[in-house]
Amino acid sequence: MNSPHEYDDIPGTYVFDGSHNRLGYHLNMFCKSLDVAANRDAFRSGEAAYLDHYPLTPEQRRAILERQWLEMLRLGGNIYYTFKLAIFDGLTMQHAGAAMSGNGMTTEEFQQMMLAGGRSITGNRSRRETPRG
């Protein structure tokens, strides 16, 4: 089915490859639909009902409704599409980036990290580097 890739070992990395594309296709098409004002209005008036138009997995549906940004990426979301939902919510890329950090980072902490050159490479090159307890 899916053969391992070298990048599978990088912590916090969700490469949008063919497998992820297939996994998240409907999630991404939902997000893309928010480009249209009438769709945004329909989603605003009933999020759960609007999602019924898309054959999402229960996990994808929950991630969207609960705005679990990192989970959307894990479930096949593409950052460029999921950001359309963040924009719908009035969030900036820094808000989404902090939420996708997976460690409870605040928007301000994310901004400072990026201004300081990004996250440290130490412990982030390979899952094999960081022993699990």
Tell me what you see in this structure.
This protein has 133 residues and is an all-alpha fold. It contains eight helices and no strands. The mean pLDDT is 84.
Shape: globular
Which percent band covers the strand fraction?
A: under 5%
**DSSP strand count:** 0
- Number of H- or I-type helical stretches: 8
Taking the sheet with the most strands, its summary is: none
Structural class: mainly alpha
Mean pLDDT: 84
Radius of gyration: 16 Å
Which H/E pattern describes the elements? HHHHHHHH
Uncertain ranges: none
Oligomer: single chain
Helix content: 40-55%
N-C termini distance: 30 Å
Short summary:
By secondary structure, the chain is mainly α. It is built from 8 helices and no strands. α7 crosses α8.
